[in-house]
Amino acid sequence: MLHFDLKDLRVFSAVALTGSITKASEYIHLSPSATSDRLSDLENRAGTRLFRRSSRGLRLNPAGEVFAESAKRILFEAEALETRLAPFAHGEEKRITVCCNYNAGVTFLPRRLGRFLSHFEDVQVEVVQRSSPEIVRHVAAGEADVGVTAFSGMHPLLEFTPFAVDWLVAVVPPEHPLAQKGEIAFSELFPYNYIAVGPYSPMQEFLYERALEEGKRIRPKITASSHDAVISLVEEGAGVSVLPSGVVTKQRNVVELKLKESWSLRRLRLCRLKDRSANAEERNALVDRFVAALLDDSGEEQGNEEEPGVGMK
Length: 313
Hints:
This protein is of the alpha/beta class and 313 residues long. The protein contains 10 helices and 12 strands.
């Protein structure tokens, strides 16, 4: 039987994403030697190499690709379990769990959550980032009170309410060859050094999948820990990236380019269970107030579907 712990999986996933022991060690807070030892030990226990090693770094081999699929699923399940156990750990605490995609988490939620918590200081809000399809599954399973998702379909157990509109945009330095184009295809970024948000980002996974659909595997030149770090690197000319328009302020020395692909338009919706009769009345009333706060966009500029970056700050 193959034995490993979650730390092993995080080491493996970080190396798979960055292609580098040194870069991976920065994100998992281990020394490069400890990261290398853990990876080697994991491969020994697996009985096979999981990476191709070359002067250009580490790349998953076929066995590694299989392992990566399961590792990703196990890590997500472990985080979901923590979320489900949290209410028990905090006893009778007033606690709300909102599951959101990356765009909502960094663009729309912070101000609205702050407004809510200024009136409900005794409430704890846990924000869990997931991909849009996973958000629907978590809310339907009762693992989150509210979801904010770009999922465009329906679900028999859930009700959906329009929430916000945002764009994914290309971000390039002002002197970049693409900077004057205004609108580009996603594939036009492929020849340039790509800067990713990581090491674990549902949005980044979404972009990797879109690249695969065009027959291209994105290998990030740099993986940064936040969107702000990505923008700083783009400002310095280190590469290009794709980010939600709402996180790019006009004070930053970068150029936003609209993407031609329809998937770059993100119509976010709020979802929650239709049948909430199993919850206590006070619980439902609290979540109702929370939902009302999320849907209250007063004082915020409204998005313009024709101009990414406008009204998305």
